[in-house]
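Researcher: I'd like a structural prediction for the single chain below. Treat it as a standalone chain; there are no partners to consider.
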Amino acid sequence: MLKVGLTGGIGCGKSTVAKIFADLNIPVLDADHVAHRLVEKGQPALDQIQQAFGTAILNPDGSLNRKNLRELVFSDIEQKRKLESILHPLIYQSLQTELEQLNAPYCIISIPLLFETAMTHFVDRILVIDCPVETQIERVKMRDNLTVERIQSIIDNQVSRVFRKAKADDLIDNSTTDYRLAEQVKKLHNLYLSLSACRD
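Model: Treating it as a single chain, here is the predicted structure.
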C-alpha cells in the first residue's frame, strides 16, 4: 500500500485536507490523534511522562494537564527533547500497528513533525500543505486564540517553509479558497490511485 505522509506548518490546513481525503474513502491516520490517545489516563506513556516531569503536569484527577506540560517544554529545548524521546517512538509504533490493519490502495498519514522527527523514510511520498506565514498566523490566532509572538515562535521551531517545499513530492497551495483545495486533492487522489496500481 502506498503511504503518503501529509505534513505542513501550523495553520496550513492539514486537517482540512485530511478530511477531503477521508471523504474520498481513503484511510487517514493522524499522529496527533495517536499522541492524544497515548497520554490518556492509565496509559503507560502518561506514567513515563509523569516520572520524567513530576506531578505538576497532572490534573487533580490524574489526567494530563496539557497546558502545564506545554508551558514546561515550550520554553526549554532540553525538556522538549525529553518529551519527544518518550512520545515519538510510541507514536510511530502505534501508526505502524494501525497501518498493518489497513486494506486500501493508498493511505494518508498526517504527521505534522515529519521532517522534525527525521522520519521521512516512514512514508513513500511526502505531501506538503503550504500557505504564506501571514496566513498561518491569521488562522492560528483565530483558531487557538494565541498571541502573534507565540504563534511566530511555534513557526520558528518548525522547519522552514522553503525547506518543506524543497522536500515535497507533492504540494498543495492552501492560500486561497476551499473550492480550489478540493480540486487539488482530487487531482492527487487520482495520481495516488494510479501510482498504487503500478505497485501491484
